[in-house]
Design goal:
heterodimer, A: mainly beta, 7-stranded mixed β-sheet, 4-stranded antiparallel β-sheet, 0% helix, B: mainly beta, 6-stranded mixed β-sheet, 5-stranded antiparallel β-sheet, 53% strand
């Protein structure tokens, strides 16, 4: 039982490059989330998906797109990476209560 | 506008003593609160939660207190252990049904010394 799996764990990009962060869950949860963590800023919500086929913007969606491919998978895409997107990215799922279950994160550096 | 605030970036406590981590919120619509613990290079993990209908919730060494009038909650760890050294995030939500969103504080780094 892997829970929430994120790939890759580390990535270095040049400004302007694109990439997709992958997230998959085996917990059969409907809701999935993408957060970013920056020093002194806590965890900020980028996008979320209440269920398969729906996505909504969070607090900091600019520069990102998401796809809820199916119930298990929720990907985050950076079309043209910027240094301001250097961060640690966490995918999470939510049970029927308010508890979130997080993946181990993707550390992204944009040069 | 930081709706959930953790004003102490760090805290150092001796092993065996009590650790008290504080959190303040401004949104009166928040009615469910959680604490998460995060080790380096890992994702946050759920620690304990409390609904606004309660003022205290206890789970082993961990107790969360909620003061709604002051919009303040605190996490008490007694006794503190070296393995408790981590970053602790406070989070809050306004229960909205299908996909309520958690708002996180900036975190407090707890170091438990021997």
């Amino acid at each position: 039982n892997a829970g929430v799996t994120q790939t890759p764990k580390f990535q270095v990009l040049k400004t302007g490059q694109s990439m997709t962060l992958q997230c998959a869950q085996d917990m059969n949860h409907n809701s999935m989330y993408w957060y970013r963590q920056d020093p002194g800023m806590g965890l900020r919500l980028i996008y979320y998906s209440a269920s398969e086929g729906t996505t909504d913007k969070g607090e900091v969606p600019n520069g990102y797109n998401v796809s809820r491919l199916n119930k298990r998978e929720f990907s985050l895409r950076l079309e043209s990476a910027a240094p301001s997107q250097t961060s640690v990215y966490f995918c999470a799922t939510r049970a029927t209560n308010e508890k979130l279950f997080f993946g181990s994160g993707t550390q992204l550096s944009v040069l | 506008d930081q709706q959930v605030k953790q004003n102490s970036p760090s805290l150092s406590v001796q092993e065996g003593r009590i650790s008290i981590l504080n959190c303040d919120y401004t949104n009166s619509m928040f009615d469910y609160f959680l604490w998460y613990k995060k080790y380096p290079a890992e994702g946050p993990t759920f620690l304990i939660s409390i609904s606004s209908i309660k003022d205290k919730n206890e789970d082993g060494r961990f107790t969360v207190f909620l003061n709604k009038s002051a919009k303040h909650l605190s996490l008490h760890i007694v006794p503190s252990q070296p393995g408790d050294s981590a970053v602790y995030f406070c989070a809050a939500s306004a229960l909205s049904g299908t996909a309520s969103k958690l708002t996180f504080g900036t975190g407090t780094r707890l170091q438990v010394t021997l």
